[in-house]
């Protein structure tokens, strides 16, 4: 299992942000093999680890650690693909937010989870999944997504009074003063989750360019595309996708996975047997594939990887990794 990939439209956002910060992105993009032809392809994707390395390289080149915040400012509805176009034609802000989160999978897949929009105590919550532990390679990702949602909400409605607060899961970074320049609302760090909190009254604000017929047309196409993505997965792959975000700090049980799939545990077990595998095999294979990706493609420590995969200690993880690959994690990295 790979960590995920995203549309190259997100690279376009990064390119625009670099230019806005008076940094030429061309050399960095060339180093990562991102040509104009690739950037113009509707089917081109970039792996999440590669995108994180691109962002890190861009921050080093520009010397602007708040690059992600600027990426949010430069995000337009069209950068989000059909989900963004749906938001642009939605009747109100609540529907726009639901569209962006629900159809996120059409332009972005992350094994760690999926964004969600829901109502809590009357407030709208646009929540971006956790990508902890945070480091220099992924802080900009959370910055860019939440900043993008914030500025899109203002642009879609033509109003500045939509957002109650911006919540960030990570501790206050060294460049925290920049957040006050990008957000005209309460900014909170060390929160339980990453989220944009929308005021209750703002949920019904009309979208300036809303069009009911266009929205329904786009929704019809988006639903069909989403079904194709999901139908392309066999059942064990669907189970693996459910297992992955549940791994953080614990080992997910069959009962918990079945609940996420809205199925009885025995049904999940039977469907897996029909494909010639058991739940434990899917769990072990998911852990193995993610372990290899984390070791090869990220800067996480062994302790962090152990936690992300639900192991009780780094030692337990190292034993499992050696059992899976025949060599220790450090040796595996040197091998490649």
What is the structure about, briefly put?
The protein has 336 residues and is an alpha+beta fold. The protein has helices spanning 9-20, 26-31, 36-39, 48-62, 67-74, 81-89, 93-102, 139-157, 177-182, 212-231, 235-246, 254-261, 265-274, 279-297, 302-308, 314-325, 329-335, and strands spanning 4-7, 45-47, 108-110, 116-120, 123-128, 163-167, 186-188, 194-198. It folds into two domains: 66-225, no CATH class; 235-335, Arc Repressor Mutant, subunit A (Orthogonal Bundle), CATH 1.10.10.
Which features characterize this protein?
336 residues; Arc Repressor Mutant, subunit A; 5-stranded mixed sheet; 3-stranded antiparallel sheet; 17 helices; 55% helix; globular
Question: If you had to describe this structure to a student in words, what would you say it looks like?
Answer:
Helix 6 (81-89) runs antiparallel to helix 7 and helix 12 (254-261) crosses helix 13 (265-274). This protein folds into two domains: 66-225, no CATH class; 235-335, Arc Repressor Mutant, subunit A (Orthogonal Bundle), CATH 1.10.10. The model has no long low-confidence stretch (mean pLDDT 92). It contains 17 helices and eight strands. It is globular and about 55 Å long. The chain is α+β, with helices and mostly antiparallel strands. A five-stranded mixed β-sheet has the order 4-5-8-6-7.
């Amino acid at each position: 299992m790979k960590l995920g990939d995203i549309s190259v439209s997100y690279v376009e956002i990064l390119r625009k942000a670099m230019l806005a910060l008076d940094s030429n992105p061309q050399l960095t993009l060339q180093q990562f093999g991102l040509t104009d032809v690739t950037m113009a392809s509707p089917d081109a994707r970039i792996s999440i680890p590669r995108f994180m390395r691109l962002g890190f390289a861009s921050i080093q080149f520009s010397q602007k650690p708040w690059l992600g915040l600027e990426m949010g400012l430069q995000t337009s509805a069209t950068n989000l693909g059909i989900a963004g176009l749906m938001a642009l034609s939605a009747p109100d802000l609540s529907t726009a937010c639901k569209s962006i989160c629900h159809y996120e999978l059409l332009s972005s897949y992350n094994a760690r989870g999926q964004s969600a929009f829901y109502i809590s105590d009357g407030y709208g919550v646009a929540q971006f999944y956790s990508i902890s532990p945070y480091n220099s390679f992924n802080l900009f990702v959370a910055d860019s997504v939440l900043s993008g949602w914030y500025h899109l909400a203002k642009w879609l409605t033509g109003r500045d009074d939509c957002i109650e607060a911006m919540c960030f899961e990570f501790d206050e970074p060294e460049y925290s003063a920049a957040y006050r320049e990008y957000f005209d609302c309460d900014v909170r760090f060390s929160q339980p989750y990453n989220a944009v909190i929308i005021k209750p009254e703002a949920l019904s604000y009309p979208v300036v360019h809303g069009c009911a017929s266009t929205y329904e047309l786009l929704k019809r196409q988006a639903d069909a595309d989403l079904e194709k993505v999901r139908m392309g997965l066999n059942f064990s792959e669907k189970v693996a996708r459910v297992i992955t975000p549940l791994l953080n700090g614990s080992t997910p049980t069959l009962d918990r996975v079945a609940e996420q799939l809205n199925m009885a545990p025995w049904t999940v077990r039977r469907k897996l047997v029909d494909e010639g595998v058991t739940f434990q095999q899917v769990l072990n294979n998911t852990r193995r594939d993610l372990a290899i990706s984390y070791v090869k493609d990220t800067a996480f420590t062994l302790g962090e990887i152990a936690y992300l995969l639900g192991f009780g200690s780094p030692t337990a993880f190292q034993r499992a990794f050696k059992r899976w690959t025949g060599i220790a994690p450090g040796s595996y990295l040197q091998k490649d």
